[in-house]
DNA sequence: CCCCGATGTATCGGCCCGATACATCGCTAC
DNA sequence: GTAGCGATGTATCGGGCCGATACATCGGGG
């Protein structure tokens, strides 16, 4: 999962570890607080061993001069890495539909073809619907076995599930009618990007046609 | 975190591993799909070594007779385990306020005193508010740097944050006015436990007084 | 009679996290 | 000036937790 995210970011531009962590945090802020260095560096080493990325010591754009001793290590993606990224983007494991997996895949939807986008959105919807049904069962059948706080927790979780299903429904509808909110590559922004709300951005929250 | 959940469930009644996993799944269904056996059994071993629980081979209530060979192992909590449970319930680490930690603590709120409940609810609210501010910053400042799908993901996450903050606000208000939705021990249920909705349950979703 | 799904216990490799250590740079404060 | 401090930066270690896997029993349906 993390492989996909790192490969995706390095495909945009080479980076060193610290930078990568920050970009990861902003891109995946909703689904993962901030990747730990205890995860990042071993993962980078693993990707390097596999041949997906290469390490180039202290690049020319070294803005803070840093009298060396230990230059920053800049990672860049290889051709095999780009292939790997494409494979990971399109693959359909069960982990593609859990919280983390779906989030990472969704974050790179602008580089995914529409058929794959639809498959992932529908798979995620099915997953959430299952979770929702489980919660409904607990709330209706096991109502007298659980205390009020636990029930309230379940109810709140059920709310979140229903909300996410609706969100996914709208995204799927949009996707099917070709109104995808992104074009591959750079995106046409109408000059003022959402100060308080952005009704001109093709979000899935418009009325049904 | 898992220690707290296991100790809490074993405090209600002794259980064997398989049963424990199922109870864990229904009680914590919203925050953790289902605990893996690769987690559960080592954890039980660790709790046993620490002296919080004891293992009693194949109890008298062995309903499916099972011609032995390997009887089911029933775990029960010790006096030290109950102390440990109380400590874990009241303690205030940073992990108390993340998704998993808060969920487990909340699930055992019926055994927590009101002061601790308030502290945890407010800590959680602060945590979510910070996450919300981070997302708002990304959405307003980095609007043109991210593609539309990533932005949509952030927007959805922001929605979830705002929703959870409101939920917490209502719980805190309820808690402060003494209208806690649970009494310690068993709970008085009005005969028909929520077939479709349960307006008579003291949920935090009633109108303000 | 045989397979299948539920019940049940247990281990292993591997991902990921928090804590920790170490080093440099630019800024402010004394 | 120099001492601290926060941001930048790389890296390791112990341990929690997961998915996959193995093994075993039991009840029921084909």
Automatic annotation (TrEMBL), chains A, B:
Organism superkingdom: Bacteria
InterPro entries recorded: Metal_resp_DNA-bind_regulator, Tscrpt_reg_PadR_N, WH-like_DNA-bd_sf, WH_DNA-bd_sf
Sequence ranges of Basic and acidic residues compositional bias: 193-209
Pfam family, one: PadR
Originating organism: Paractinoplanes toevensis
Sequence ranges assigned to domain Transcription regulator PadR N-terminal in this UniProt record: 6-86
Segments for region (Disordered): 173-209
Protein name as annotated: PadR family transcriptional regulator
């Amino acid at each position: 999962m993390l492989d996909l995210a790192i490969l995706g970011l390095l495909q945009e531009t080479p980076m060193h570890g610290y930078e990568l962590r920050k970009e990861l945090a902003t891109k995946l802020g909703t689904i993962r607080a901030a990747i730990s260095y205890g995860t990042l560096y071993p993962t980078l080493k693993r990707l390097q061993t596999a041949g997906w990325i290469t390490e180039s010591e202290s690049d020319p754009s070294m803005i803070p001069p840093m009298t060396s001793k230990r230059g920053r290590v800049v990672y860049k993606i290889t051709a095999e890495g780009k292939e790997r990224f494409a494979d990971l983007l399109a693959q359909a494991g069960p982990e593609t539909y859990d919280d983390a997996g779906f989030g990472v895949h969704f974050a790179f939807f602008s580089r995914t073809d529409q058929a794959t986008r639809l498959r992932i959105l529908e798979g995620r919807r099915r997953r959430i619907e299952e979770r929702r049904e489980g919660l409904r069962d607990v709330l209706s059948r096991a109502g007298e076995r659980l205390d009020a706080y636990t029930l309230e927790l379940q109810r709140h979780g059920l709310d979140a599930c229903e909300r996410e299903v609706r969100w996914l429904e709208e995204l799927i509808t949009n996707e099917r009618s070709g109104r995808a909110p992104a074009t591959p590559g750079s995106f046409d922004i109408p000059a003022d990007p959402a100060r308080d709300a952005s009704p001109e951005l093709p979000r899935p929250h418009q009325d049904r046609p």
